[in-house]
Amino acid sequence: MTHRIAAIPGDGIGTAVTEAAMQVTLAAGAAVEFTTFPWSCDHYLQTGRMMPEDGLDTLRGFDAILLGAVGWPEKVADAVSLHGLLLPIRKAFVQYANIRPHRLLPGVKGPLRKEGFDILCIRENTEGEYCGAGGRVHQGTADEVAVETAIFTRKGVERILRFGFQQARARRGRLASVTKSNAQRFSMVFWDEVTARLAPEYPDVEVTSYHVDALCARMVMAPETLDVIVASNLFGDILTDLGAAIQGGLGYAASANLNPDRSAPSMFEPVHGSAPDIAHRGIANPIAAIWSAAMMLDHLGQTAPAARIMAAISSVTARGVGTVPGRERTETITAAILAALQQDSAR
Ligand code: IPM
Ligand code: MN
After folding, report:
1. What pLDDT shows up at residue 345?
2. Which of these, 233, 114, 221, 215, lies nearest to 174 by C-alpha position?
3. Pairing between β-strand 118-124 and β-strand 97-103 as defined by DSSP bridges
4. Is the CB of 237 under 6 A from ligand 1?
5. Which of 59, 250, 330, 338 could link 272 by a cystine bridge, Cβ 3.0 to 4.6 Å?
6. Calpha distance 59→281 (Å, rounded)
7. Distance of CA 346 from the midpoint of ligand 1 (Å)
C-alpha cells in the first residue's frame, strides 16, 4: 500500500532539509507519494494566512505529514506563524505524544565526555503550558496584566504517562516522570499522583519522579542512567533542546508528533527551527529531517525502508561525513546517504 504524505517544507532551512528527506525516503524504496504544500511565512505575506482556512481538512486526508520548520521572525511574528500552522496541527490532530530520541550517531562526538546513552524523551504535546488559555488586559498601560494558564487534564496526563510506560516497557524498562511539584503544587502534584497511581499497572517498569531542574543536571552528568523521559509540553520542549545538545546538536535531533490512536495523521519534523542565520546557504544538516522521515516510515509500518535509512545515516556519520557542523554542504551529506542506500541495495 502506498502512503500519501503531505510535505510542508515551511521556512528557512526547512525547505532544503525536507527536500533531502523526501529524496532519501524515495531512494530507500518506501511506498509513499508526496504532495507538497507551500504553507509558510511567505505564504502568510501573500495570503494573510499561514495555511488556508480549510488547511486542516486538507491535511486530514493524508496518512502522515512531513514538516520542515516554521518561523521567520523578521517577516512574521513567531506568535503568529507558530499559532497559524505548527501548533494547531499538533492540537487538532491530537498528536499528544511528541517523541524525540537522543543518542549519539556513530562518529558524532557530542560535547560530553560520555558515550553510550540512549534516551527517548516523550513530551506532552496538546495541553499544559501550551494550551493557549490566557489573555492581556489594560494593554500598553502601567496597569497591564498578562495571564497564561497551564491546563492539565486527567485525560491528557493519563494518556501521555501511559504512553511513556508503554515505551519504557518496550525499551530498557525505566521511566523518568518529570515535574516541578516542589514549587508548583497543583498541576505538578497532580501529575506525580497520576504517575504513582498508574505505576502498579506496569510492574515491569521502574518509574522514578524527578524535578525538572535535577533532571537537567542528570542529562549532562549521567545521561546513561536514563531511558524514557516523560514531561509536560514546556518542560519537554526545554529538555529536548538539552537532549539535542548532548547528542551533538540540533542537526541530529529528530521528532515525531504522534497521534497514537491513529484518529488523524501524525506529523514528523526535525527539532531544529528555520535557522534564519544559515538559511539558503546550503549548509544545514539534513540528518535530523531524514531521521524524522525514518520515524514516519516506522509509524506507517514501513519498517524495512526505515531501517535502511537509519543504517545509511549511520554508515555515513561513521565515516565522519556530517559530523562537524557546517563542514559539508547539505547536498554533500544527502548524496552520501543516497550513495549508502544504493550500496546497500546492490548487496
Ligand atoms: C519545538 C519548537 C516549537 C515548540 C516552537 C517553534 C513553537 O521549539 O518543536 O520544540 O516549542 O514546540
Ligand atoms: Mn523546542
Report:
1. 82
2. 215
3. antiparallel
4. yes
5. 250
6. 30
7. 40
Cα–Cα distances in angstroms (integers) from residue 84 to residues 14, 48, 50, 126, 236, in the given order: 17, 10, 5, 15, 21
Low-confidence ranges of the chain (pLDDT < 50): none
Q: Is 12 in the pocket of ligand 1 (CB under 6 A)?
A: no
Q: What is the pLDDT of residue 274?
A: 98
Atom of ligand 1 nearest to the CA of 273: 6
| Cα distance between residue 114 and residue 246, in whole Å | 9
All residues at 6 or more sequence positions from 29 whose CB lies less than 8 Å from its CB, including other chains: 304, 305, 308, 345
The three grid cell numbers given for residue 51, joined into one nine-digit string: 495555511
pLDDT score of 346? 80
Distance 2 CA to ligand 2 centre (A): 31
Which amino acid residue places its CA nearest to atom 11 of ligand 1? 237
pTM for the full predicted model: 0.97
Q: Would you say the CB of residue 124 lies under 6 angstroms from ligand 1? A: no
Q: Is the C-beta atom of 270 inside 6 A of ligand 1? A: no
Distance separating alpha carbons of residues 122 and 102, to the nearest angstrom: 11
Partners of 270 in the β-ladder: 254
Q: Tell me which amino acid residue 207 is.
A: V
